[in-house]
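Why this split exists: single-chain examples teach little about how molecules sit against one another. For that reason, every record in the complexes split bundles all components of an assembly together and asks for one structure covering all of them. Below is a record exactly as it appears in the raw files.
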Amino acid sequence: MKKLVILGAGCGGTMMANKMRRHLDRNQWDITIIDKDNNHDYQPGYLFVPFGINTAKEIRKTKREFIKPGINFVISELANVDWDKQEVTTTTEGKFSYDILIMSTGCDTHPEEVEGLAETWNKTAFGYYTYDDCFELKKSLAQFEGGKLVVNIAEMPIKCPVAPLEFAFLVDWHLQQRGIREKVDLQFVTPLTGAFTKPIATEVLTQACKEKNINIVPNFALGAVDGDRKVIQAFDGQEVDYDLLVSIPPNFGAEVMIDSGIADPMGYIPVDKHTLQPEGHDNVWVLGDGTNVPTSKAGAVAHYQSDILEENIMAYIEGEAQHARSDGHAL
Amino acid sequence: MGLLKDTRFNHISKLMFKWAYFNLLLSGTWLGPPSLQLVGKRMDMIKK
């Protein structure tokens, strides 16, 4: 029996497991997907939780309900990934050897990577990029009666790069609904040169910010947060004060990938940006937020990458040339 | 109707995507050719 092992049962890993189960003969291929827990969060829904648009029940389901029959689902933390030995080690369920490995372990936010941010987290600084954080922000936003609300991106890359602007627009709407918009100075503080990463979108979105009276502070490379003074500080000395800080902390790939010696210092796995394979390992593919590919970290990108992987992995198994190429675009 | 426009339709579409995510995307359902990702995009402007 040959073995396909998939690391990560989020959006990318689940899609790949289900696609490959459809293709591969159950008598010839064993498919195992490994993840640290059984919670499948609809991450785009985090954005709407602080405004009461999405509820906990709507955005959190179990991973198992989306994994098709005939796929082994193992719940355990990863301890090591060894591409040379073709073996994955978990903390509680032992080792798994593989013939083909698909990796989709994503990335996470790390407030502790900014001086002072972790100390003030869920006190005056809040976030919405994790399940727990978005509910904490909901409570804080409900108590906010006016002042300076700062939405700040610490650094790029981040998951769903447009989400911070969407959040700012939703805050504008939310405050209007509550009748306190005029009591709030809404600022969008970003390390980018403008509202967004792409010039055409930036032009449109800058105009939208202007119409909504959202003040953009560009080129702000966050260095530290002073929770006592309620100030964010840039490396160049620039400061922005706040009453409520909505922070998008630095994003990093899975630490176990760094420990396994297969990722860059930010935890992102270096791969060919078109084939999504690490150099020298023709039976390993990586998709989703955990790669170092210069594209948006978003489910839509993982979806199109999964189409590329599906075609190329089947070609690899059948000994044929792999023609599919990822170009990083999403919807 | 532009994707970048601030419209109720765009907002509702975003909310409706949740259904597609849980019912189509995760199951690995084929959602169209890879070229779909370029539909409506002004690639000529991007190249400039």
